[in-house]
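FORM 12-B: Structure-to-Sequence Request
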């Protein structure tokens, strides 16, 4: 015969599995947003019978509204270290079908990411078995690595500028050199331990 403890554990397991399944049935949208401090996963649950709305950022519950009589509308919250403004728009398409769109800083996710690719450079590399994501914000020259804003030292060199920082015991440098072409502007290159790192496309 099973002990009382085993039965309790069993019941808890079933309950947590059930609540997890119950939770997943209302999941209607998942987005991945690449910001300077990392890639953030946004999940949205919408109960079309109860009007329930739940927003998760990186698995953490940010907003929960259980009973909403209005099934359309918007939910606004912040994402990442810089508290970037995000809004989920809920629109009725037809009958009981809904469309969910994500806006970041007032722009559609697509527009925001297109604009971001013009204002940032991203490199992904592996050092000593650890993966790193380095982001340069071109307007401020801030450098982020795996969610941390790095201490940097900038210097002018003959053909442009160099921004120095270190990751662990690796010396890193972002070189900024004019392309000589107006359309291309300045070319940024990441060099780690004298090795050039190719830019990542997000």
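FORM 12-B RESPONSE
SEQUENCE OUT:
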């Amino acid at each position: 015969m099973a002990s009382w403890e085993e039965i309790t554990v069993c019941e808890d397991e079933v309950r947590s599995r059930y609540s997890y399944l119950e939770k997943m049935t209302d999941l209607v949208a998942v987005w991945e947003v690449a910001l300077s401090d990392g890639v953030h996963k946004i999940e949205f649950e919408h109960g079309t019978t109860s009007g329930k709305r739940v927003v998760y950022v990186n698995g953490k519950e940010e907003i929960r509204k259980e009973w909403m009589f209005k099934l359309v509308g918007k939910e606004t919250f912040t994402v990442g270290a810089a508290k970037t403004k995000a809004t989920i728009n809920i629109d009725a398409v037809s009958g009981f079908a809904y469309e969910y769109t994500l806006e970041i800083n007032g722009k559609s996710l697509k527009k925001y990411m297109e604009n971001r690719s013009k204002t940032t450079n991203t490199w992904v590399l592996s050092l000593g078995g650890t993966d790193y994501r380095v982001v340069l914000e071109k307007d401020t020259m801030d450098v982020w690595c795996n969610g941390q804003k790095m201490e940097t030292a900038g210097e002018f060199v003959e053909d442009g500028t160099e921004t120095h920082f270190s990751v662990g015991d690796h010396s890193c440098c972002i070189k900024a050199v004019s392309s000589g072409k107006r359309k291309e502007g300045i070319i940024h290159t990441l060099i780690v331990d004298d090795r050039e790192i190719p830019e990542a496309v997000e």
